[in-house]
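Working notes for the structural subgroup meeting. M.R. asked for a predicted model of this chain before we commit to crystallization trials. I am recording the input and output together here so anyone reviewing the notebook later can reproduce the run.

Input as submitted:
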Amino acid sequence: MTVNTKLACAVVGAEGRMVRRICELIAQSDRFYLAGATERADHPHLGKTIREVLATVPSDEKIAGSLDELVTPFDVIIDFTFPPVSMQTARFAGRSSKAAVIGSTGFSPGQMAEIQSLAGNFPCVCAPNMSTGVNTLFKLVGEVAQILGEDFDAEVLEVHHHNKKDAPSGTALKIARILADAYGRDLSQVGVYERKGIIGERKKDEIGIQTLRAGDIVGEHTVLFCGQGERLELIHRAHSRDTFVYGALRAARWVIDRPNGLYDMQDVLGLR
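Returned structure, recorded in token form:
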């Protein structure tokens, strides 16, 4: 159900850094309506209005302990939290057939398999990065890897703020999987996540994924293709978290009219 023809959104994890900004931009939008927000069951702000907790969001909806407790009807769920919380979101969506946009990272293969199964009952966009630029990078990485072939070594470097909890980033892992697929390799066998000491020469089929954490860096991803006498670099730098929020809202508008199933931002942007 929509309010004044706007798409009604429920957000999970109201006080997370990313979700705060999602709430702010929803409140500023003429296309979306903030129908409700949740926080963990023991959060001290449960029962308070969103306006009381997030001063920049003029909403009198109360923060609930779960999606089941939200009073105002909503069309789509937006979840940028952590895998355990997002699994609860996916299970709720599976029961209720509510569309969902999930931007959490760090899912295990088993968790992703469960989301895939649950999405048979609701339309879901699940992507490690909602940025238009990053998803264009995903497209380019696969194409460049196929053009340059195995004569070029491929390495991935990701840099984020010091508060980021998972490593490597979901985006870096997605890039590495794209590279592995392009080369016909198994990432679990060729991925190298740390180099230290006397490790010998780099193996020809290695795909390196290296991590840096410092300051307040929003996010940077560099893909290096290094051959004899030349190097090609593809770089994406996020200057603001807003780029991820705009992507999430674009995904929310897109997914609401889709058949049940699991999608990603490549589908949203028509890059397949």
